[in-house]
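Both lines are quoted verbatim for reference:

——
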Amino acid sequence: TVPLNREQSGDSRDALAKALYGKLFSWLVERCNEKLVDDSASTAFVGILDIFGSEIFATNGFEQLLINYANEKLQAHFTAAAITLLQAEYLREGIAVDRVEYTDNAATIALLEGKPLSVLAVLDDQCLQAGATDASLTAALHSSFDGHASYGTPRIGADSAFTIGHFGGRVTYSVAGFLSKNKDALFAELPSTMRASASPFVAQLFSEAAEQRRQQAPSGDGGAAAAGKPTATNVNEGPARRVSHSRRAGGGGGGSGGGGGGGEGGR
Protein backbone atom coordinates (compact mmCIF):
# COMPACT_ATOMS: atom_id res chain seq x y z
CA THR A 1 0.00 0.00 0.00
CA VAL A 2 1.37 3.38 -1.04
CA PRO A 3 0.11 6.33 1.02
CA LEU A 4 -1.24 9.27 -1.01
CA ASN A 5 -1.34 12.90 -0.10
CA ARG A 6 -4.58 14.88 -0.27
CA GLU A 7 -4.11 16.01 -3.89
CA GLN A 8 -3.20 12.49 -5.09
CA SER A 9 -6.18 11.04 -3.25
CA GLY A 10 -8.49 13.52 -4.92
CA ASP A 11 -7.05 12.69 -8.35
CA SER A 12 -7.49 8.97 -7.68
CA ARG A 13 -11.10 9.50 -6.60
CA ASP A 14 -11.86 11.49 -9.75
CA ALA A 15 -10.17 8.89 -11.95
CA LEU A 16 -12.29 6.13 -10.44
CA ALA A 17 -15.46 8.18 -10.90
CA LYS A 18 -14.52 8.76 -14.54
CA ALA A 19 -13.85 5.06 -15.11
CA LEU A 20 -17.17 4.15 -13.50
CA TYR A 21 -19.00 6.68 -15.68
CA GLY A 22 -17.33 5.38 -18.85
CA LYS A 23 -18.14 1.75 -18.10
CA LEU A 24 -21.74 2.65 -17.23
CA PHE A 25 -22.02 4.54 -20.54
CA SER A 26 -20.82 1.47 -22.47
CA TRP A 27 -23.17 -0.76 -20.49
CA LEU A 28 -26.14 1.44 -21.46
CA VAL A 29 -25.19 1.27 -25.14
CA GLU A 30 -24.92 -2.53 -24.95
CA ARG A 31 -28.31 -2.82 -23.24
CA CYS A 32 -29.95 -0.54 -25.83
CA ASN A 33 -28.62 -2.63 -28.69
CA GLU A 34 -29.62 -5.88 -27.00
CA LYS A 35 -33.18 -4.76 -26.26
CA LEU A 36 -34.00 -2.41 -29.13
CA VAL A 37 -32.19 -3.74 -32.20
CA ASP A 38 -33.93 -6.51 -34.15
CA ASP A 39 -31.70 -7.66 -37.00
CA SER A 40 -34.70 -9.22 -38.74
CA ALA A 41 -36.55 -5.89 -38.94
CA SER A 42 -34.86 -2.90 -40.53
CA THR A 43 -37.93 -0.68 -40.80
CA ALA A 44 -40.25 1.19 -38.44
CA PHE A 45 -37.64 2.71 -36.17
CA VAL A 46 -36.80 6.13 -34.81
CA GLY A 47 -33.24 7.44 -35.02
CA ILE A 48 -31.98 10.06 -32.57
CA LEU A 49 -28.90 12.22 -33.09
CA ASP A 50 -27.95 14.16 -29.98
CA ILE A 51 -26.16 17.39 -30.89
CA PHE A 52 -24.01 19.04 -28.23
CA GLY A 53 -23.76 22.41 -29.96
CA SER A 54 -20.40 24.11 -30.48
CA GLU A 55 -19.04 26.40 -27.80
CA ILE A 56 -17.05 29.46 -28.85
CA PHE A 57 -16.51 32.03 -26.13
CA ALA A 58 -14.17 34.96 -25.55
CA THR A 59 -12.07 32.57 -23.44
CA ASN A 60 -12.25 28.84 -24.22
CA GLY A 61 -10.82 26.17 -21.94
CA PHE A 62 -10.67 22.42 -21.45
CA GLU A 63 -14.45 22.02 -21.31
CA GLN A 64 -14.97 23.85 -24.62
CA LEU A 65 -12.31 21.70 -26.30
CA LEU A 66 -14.06 18.50 -25.22
CA ILE A 67 -17.52 19.71 -26.19
CA ASN A 68 -16.30 20.84 -29.60
CA TYR A 69 -14.41 17.55 -29.98
CA ALA A 70 -17.67 15.72 -29.27
CA ASN A 71 -19.43 17.89 -31.84
CA GLU A 72 -16.79 17.01 -34.45
CA LYS A 73 -17.49 13.31 -33.86
CA LEU A 74 -21.23 13.84 -34.10
CA GLN A 75 -20.84 15.87 -37.29
CA ALA A 76 -18.78 13.09 -38.87
CA HIS A 77 -21.38 10.50 -37.86
CA PHE A 78 -24.18 12.70 -39.19
CA THR A 79 -22.56 13.25 -42.58
CA ALA A 80 -21.69 9.56 -42.90
CA ALA A 81 -25.17 8.33 -41.97
CA ALA A 82 -27.40 11.07 -43.36
CA ILE A 83 -25.48 12.14 -46.46
CA THR A 84 -22.79 9.70 -47.63
CA LEU A 85 -24.79 6.48 -47.15
CA LEU A 86 -28.00 8.04 -48.47
CA GLN A 87 -26.33 9.35 -51.62
CA ALA A 88 -24.72 5.95 -52.18
CA GLU A 89 -28.15 4.31 -51.87
CA TYR A 90 -29.65 6.74 -54.41
CA LEU A 91 -26.80 5.95 -56.79
CA ARG A 92 -27.35 2.20 -56.46
CA GLU A 93 -31.05 2.63 -57.19
CA GLY A 94 -30.44 4.92 -60.16
CA ILE A 95 -32.22 7.91 -58.59
CA ALA A 96 -31.07 11.23 -60.04
CA VAL A 97 -30.42 13.75 -57.26
CA ASP A 98 -28.18 16.77 -56.83
CA ARG A 99 -25.04 15.79 -54.96
CA VAL A 100 -24.74 17.38 -51.52
CA GLU A 101 -21.26 18.75 -50.92
CA TYR A 102 -19.98 18.96 -47.35
CA THR A 103 -16.73 19.61 -45.53
CA ASP A 104 -14.92 16.46 -44.44
CA ASN A 105 -13.72 16.99 -40.87
CA ALA A 106 -11.65 13.77 -40.69
CA ALA A 107 -8.40 15.75 -40.48
CA THR A 108 -9.63 17.70 -37.44
CA ILE A 109 -10.79 14.54 -35.69
CA ALA A 110 -7.42 12.90 -36.36
CA LEU A 111 -5.69 15.99 -34.96
CA LEU A 112 -7.74 15.73 -31.76
CA GLU A 113 -7.76 11.97 -31.14
CA GLY A 114 -5.50 10.23 -33.69
CA LYS A 115 -2.92 7.65 -32.72
CA PRO A 116 -0.09 7.76 -31.96
CA LEU A 117 0.05 11.57 -32.04
CA SER A 118 -2.83 13.95 -31.34
CA VAL A 119 -3.74 16.91 -29.15
CA LEU A 120 -5.27 14.64 -26.51
CA ALA A 121 -2.35 12.21 -26.70
CA VAL A 122 0.11 15.06 -26.10
CA LEU A 123 -2.02 16.23 -23.18
CA ASP A 124 -2.08 12.73 -21.67
CA ASP A 125 1.69 12.45 -22.11
CA GLN A 126 2.26 15.80 -20.39
CA CYS A 127 0.11 14.65 -17.46
CA LEU A 128 2.58 11.80 -16.94
CA GLN A 129 5.61 14.10 -16.99
CA ALA A 130 6.92 15.28 -13.63
CA GLY A 131 6.98 19.05 -13.49
CA ALA A 132 4.83 19.59 -16.58
CA THR A 133 3.38 23.09 -16.82
CA ASP A 134 0.98 25.04 -19.02
CA ALA A 135 4.03 26.39 -20.86
CA SER A 136 5.50 22.93 -21.51
CA LEU A 137 2.12 21.66 -22.74
CA THR A 138 1.75 24.59 -25.12
CA ALA A 139 5.30 24.16 -26.41
CA ALA A 140 4.72 20.43 -26.99
CA LEU A 141 1.52 21.12 -28.92
CA HIS A 142 3.09 23.82 -31.09
CA SER A 143 6.11 21.67 -31.93
CA SER A 144 4.01 18.59 -32.66
CA PHE A 145 1.40 20.17 -34.93
CA ASP A 146 3.09 23.17 -36.50
CA GLY A 147 1.96 23.23 -40.13
CA HIS A 148 -1.15 21.08 -39.62
CA ALA A 149 -4.04 22.49 -41.64
CA SER A 150 -6.43 22.34 -38.66
CA TYR A 151 -3.97 23.66 -36.06
CA GLY A 152 -2.83 27.20 -35.48
CA THR A 153 -0.72 29.33 -33.17
CA PRO A 154 -2.50 32.50 -32.05
CA ARG A 155 -0.72 35.79 -32.63
CA ILE A 156 -1.47 36.91 -29.06
CA GLY A 157 -0.76 34.62 -26.09
CA ALA A 158 1.01 31.96 -28.14
CA ASP A 159 2.84 30.72 -25.03
CA SER A 160 -0.43 29.70 -23.33
CA ALA A 161 -2.95 29.02 -26.11
CA PHE A 162 -3.53 27.15 -29.36
CA THR A 163 -6.14 27.24 -32.13
CA ILE A 164 -8.16 24.41 -33.68
CA GLY A 165 -10.00 24.74 -36.99
CA HIS A 166 -13.36 23.10 -36.27
CA PHE A 167 -16.08 22.55 -38.87
CA GLY A 168 -18.02 25.33 -37.14
CA GLY A 169 -15.11 27.78 -37.13
CA ARG A 170 -11.66 28.36 -35.67
CA VAL A 171 -11.48 28.34 -31.85
CA THR A 172 -8.57 29.46 -29.70
CA TYR A 173 -8.13 27.59 -26.41
CA SER A 174 -6.34 28.73 -23.28
CA VAL A 175 -4.38 25.81 -21.78
CA ALA A 176 -4.84 27.09 -18.22
CA GLY A 177 -6.13 24.16 -16.14
CA PHE A 178 -5.77 21.53 -18.87
CA LEU A 179 -3.26 19.46 -16.91
CA SER A 180 -5.13 19.43 -13.61
CA LYS A 181 -8.48 18.68 -15.25
CA ASN A 182 -7.11 15.80 -17.34
CA LYS A 183 -5.50 13.83 -14.54
CA ASP A 184 -7.15 10.42 -14.61
CA ALA A 185 -4.49 7.86 -13.70
CA LEU A 186 -6.33 4.81 -12.37
CA PHE A 187 -4.18 2.90 -9.91
CA ALA A 188 -3.90 -0.79 -10.80
CA GLU A 189 -5.45 -1.90 -7.51
CA LEU A 190 -8.73 -0.05 -8.11
CA PRO A 191 -10.21 -2.19 -10.93
CA SER A 192 -9.58 -5.39 -8.96
CA THR A 193 -11.11 -3.75 -5.89
CA MET A 194 -14.20 -2.82 -7.89
CA ARG A 195 -14.48 -6.39 -9.22
CA ALA A 196 -14.73 -7.49 -5.57
CA SER A 197 -17.51 -4.98 -4.88
CA ALA A 198 -20.49 -6.08 -2.79
CA SER A 199 -22.65 -4.69 -5.59
CA PRO A 200 -22.98 -7.32 -8.35
CA PHE A 201 -23.70 -4.58 -10.88
CA VAL A 202 -20.51 -2.64 -10.10
CA ALA A 203 -18.48 -5.85 -10.14
CA GLN A 204 -19.99 -6.68 -13.55
CA LEU A 205 -19.03 -3.26 -14.97
CA PHE A 206 -15.36 -3.85 -14.09
CA SER A 207 -15.28 -7.53 -15.05
CA GLU A 208 -12.72 -8.73 -17.57
CA ALA A 209 -15.52 -10.10 -19.77
CA ALA A 210 -17.14 -6.66 -19.95
CA GLU A 211 -13.82 -5.10 -20.91
CA GLN A 212 -13.32 -7.66 -23.69
CA ARG A 213 -16.78 -6.89 -25.08
CA ARG A 214 -16.00 -3.18 -25.13
CA GLN A 215 -12.72 -3.75 -26.97
CA GLN A 216 -14.40 -6.00 -29.54
CA ALA A 217 -17.38 -3.68 -30.14
CA PRO A 218 -17.50 -2.05 -33.61
CA SER A 219 -16.96 1.67 -33.95
CA GLY A 220 -19.89 4.05 -34.24
CA ASP A 221 -19.77 4.08 -38.07
CA GLY A 222 -19.48 0.34 -38.57
CA GLY A 223 -21.48 -2.80 -37.98
CA ALA A 224 -25.24 -2.50 -38.11
CA ALA A 225 -25.13 1.22 -38.77
CA ALA A 226 -23.02 0.75 -41.88
CA ALA A 227 -25.43 -1.91 -43.06
CA GLY A 228 -28.33 0.49 -42.74
CA LYS A 229 -29.78 -1.12 -39.61
CA PRO A 230 -30.87 0.93 -36.61
CA THR A 231 -28.52 0.71 -33.67
CA ALA A 232 -27.46 2.67 -30.62
CA THR A 233 -23.90 3.81 -31.20
CA ASN A 234 -21.24 5.10 -28.85
CA VAL A 235 -19.65 7.37 -31.45
CA ASN A 236 -19.33 9.97 -28.74
CA GLU A 237 -18.13 7.75 -25.90
CA GLY A 238 -14.59 9.13 -25.63
CA PRO A 239 -15.62 12.79 -25.64
CA ALA A 240 -18.50 12.12 -23.25
CA ARG A 241 -16.21 10.51 -20.70
CA ARG A 242 -13.76 13.39 -20.79
CA VAL A 243 -16.51 16.02 -20.70
CA SER A 244 -18.04 14.46 -17.59
CA HIS A 245 -14.69 14.31 -15.85
CA SER A 246 -13.76 17.88 -16.72
CA ARG A 247 -17.10 19.25 -15.47
CA ARG A 248 -16.55 17.45 -12.18
CA ALA A 249 -12.88 18.36 -11.80
CA GLY A 250 -12.92 21.95 -12.90
CA GLY A 251 -16.42 23.15 -13.64
CA GLY A 252 -16.70 26.09 -15.92
CA GLY A 253 -17.93 26.28 -19.46
CA GLY A 254 -21.38 27.16 -20.54
CA GLY A 255 -24.16 24.76 -21.34
CA SER A 256 -24.18 23.03 -24.69
CA GLY A 257 -25.35 25.13 -27.54
CA GLY A 258 -23.74 28.30 -26.19
CA GLY A 259 -21.30 30.49 -28.02
CA GLY A 260 -21.11 31.34 -31.66
CA GLY A 261 -21.61 27.88 -33.14
CA GLY A 262 -24.46 26.37 -31.15
CA GLY A 263 -26.31 23.59 -32.90
CA GLU A 264 -24.13 23.55 -36.03
CA GLY A 265 -23.79 19.79 -35.91
CA GLY A 266 -27.32 19.43 -37.23
CA ARG A 267 -26.64 21.13 -40.52
Confidence is low (pLDDT under 50) at residues 219-235, 244-267.
